[in-house]
Amino acid sequence: MTDKIQKSFAPDPIDSFSPANSKAIIEYLNTKRALVETALQQYMPELTEHIEFHIESMAYSLSAGGKRVRPVLCIAAAEALGQDMTNLMPIPCALECIHTYSLIHDDLPAMDNDELRRGKPTNHMVYGEAAAILAGDSLLTFAFELLSHPSLTGIIAPQNQVRIINTIAQAAGPMGMAGGQALDIASENKDIPFKTLQFIHSRKTGALITASVQCGALLGNASKARFDALSDYGRHIGLAFQIVDDLLNVEGTMEELGKAVGSDADRNKATYPAFFGVSETRNKAKETVQSAIDALSEFDMKADPLRNLAAYIYARTN
Questions:
Q1: Which of 67, 80, 121, 152 is buried most, with the most CB atoms less than 10 Å from its CB?
Q2: 0.85 cut: is pTM over it?
Q3: Cα(83)–Cα(68) distance, integer angstroms
């Protein structure tokens, strides 16, 4: 198995990877993103009399673009276990709805007070603050409608469906994304220990990314050993994603990111570059991504998209 894995991707995928020239992963991302986009359009509520503006507000942010990293990670993890995702798309779509809700709320004046997201005006700039809050609320709730979608009956084992719902609820709630965001805001303009920063990153960003991989593992009926390995991969990749976000907030441009840069320093937020400097932070991101790839050592070539997604997250510029 080891020989197969070594032949299936570059010997040093992190150093050799470039999003601009890695045809295989770009094609994979584009293909899976298209599946997610199509499914989201299929499942979104239809415009309904009296609340058209509310549905439009939800759809505005949900269709604003983005890499769809979380649903793609879910799909890739399931496919690494040989699972066909054709009839299971409500699960990755639910993950994207939760992620989008979090972005709408993060951008609000009471939170990060951002005017741009993915190069477009943020939801509250277009629809108003109250409408944006409610659009986020509906996307979060709609995600659980998708997770219990009737089309999944008989396709997912009931115990796995319950585990998926519980996994996502924990990742989005007080011990996950929402709690991490709360601590992140409470820590602004304060000197916090590195341990606290690690906690923030593991919850604010890492929890939903880890859950996305775990949901794919559950959809693929992973053994305990393989579920644990994929969970390790998810935790490392979730941390790496936020470390790179910290870097891009320092080194990126508004054109690349589609939003303001330098906001972390403006708010005196604790970040990896603030603790370690840019160069050492880049090294830590690389080490974390390599740990993610190492977690997949017992998987064959079907896990190559996960390996290359890890390298993509390290090398990304937006």
A1: 80
A2: yes
A3: 19
> Residue 236 carries which side chain, given as an amino acid letter?
H
Tell which residue, 141, 130, 142, 115, has the closest CA to residue 40: 142
How far out from the chain centre does Cα 239 lie? Answer: 11
Residues 308, 75 contacting (CB under 8 angstroms): no
Q: What is the mean pLDDT of each run of 10 residues along the chain (318 residues)?
A: 38 53 83 96 92 96 92 98 97 98 97 90 98 98 97 94 98 97 93 95 96 98 98 97 92 69 77 94 95 97 95 87
Please give the angle made by the CA atoms of 263, 268 and 271, to the nearest 5 degrees: 80
Interacting residues of 84 by C-beta distance below 8 A, sequence separation 6+: none
Task: With CA atoms as reference, report the closest residue to 168 among 66, 57, 93.
Answer: 93
Nearest Cα to Cα of residue 140 among 182, 89, 97: 97
Tell me the C-alpha to C-alpha distance, in Å, between residue 61 and each of 54, 55, 67, 185.
Answer: 12, 10, 13, 23
Whose tokens are 């979060």? That residue is 140
List of domains in the chain: 2-315 (1.10.600.10)
Q: Which pLDDT score is estimated for 3?
A: 35
